[in-house]
Every structure is written in structure tokens, then in C-alpha cells.
UniProtKB/TrEMBL annotation:
It holds the Pfam family Emfourin. This is Protealysin inhibitor emfourin. InterPro entries: Emfourin.
Amino acid sequence: MERGTIAVYDRTLRVRLRLSGGMPPLDRDIPVDGFHLPAERARELDALVRALPTEDVRGLLPPPVPDSAFYELHVERYGERRAYWYHDGSLPPEVRALVRFLLDVANGGAPGMTAPDPAPAEGNEGV
């Protein structure tokens, strides 16, 4: 870096969850920007995002059953963008934890208030 040059680092942390399908039908869009969260919640969001799968596993997942809810996640972290698509029967535990966090934030995140758990992935019912 040249002398006198200021380094600028992209510290963006944004997650958008789109819920659709299911019974009764869902249609919900939940955007969360880490900049607008309290510091501790922003660190929690960052840890949850870092825990997400790094590889595309869509071809390895079981097909959705009728009336499945669908989870579409768009993540922007420090300039890197990723997208994830899951349904009720394919939601891995680390993604389920992020969905639970986002639902909690969207519901106000009041102490003692918990968001409903997304359905566990098949074979992960006890997780």
C-alpha cells in the first residue's frame, strides 16, 4: 500500500430470508442488516453466517414433499455474496439456527420471545 493511502474494508453483513410455500401458505421476506443490530447480536449473526455450508448441496438434498415450506437465503458478508435454497426436509442444523435467529429478529427479539422452529431436515429430527 502506498504511503498516505487509506485502506477501506467492506464490513457489510446482510442477510435476506424469503419464506414461501407450506401450509398455510407462507410469503414472508425478512431482511436483516448487521449494521443495525446491537453489537452482540451482530456478532451472533456473523458467527451463524460463518457456519453456513460453503459448497452447493442442492443436488444432494431429498426432494420436497407436497406443501413444504421453502427457505431462500441471500447472504452478503464482507463483499462476498452467496445464496442458499432449502425446503423443510433439507434444512441442515446450521441453517436452521440462522433461520431461527432471523425469525427472532423479525419478531422483535424480545427477551423470552422465541421464534417457531423451522422443520428439521429428514434424519436430523433430534438435532
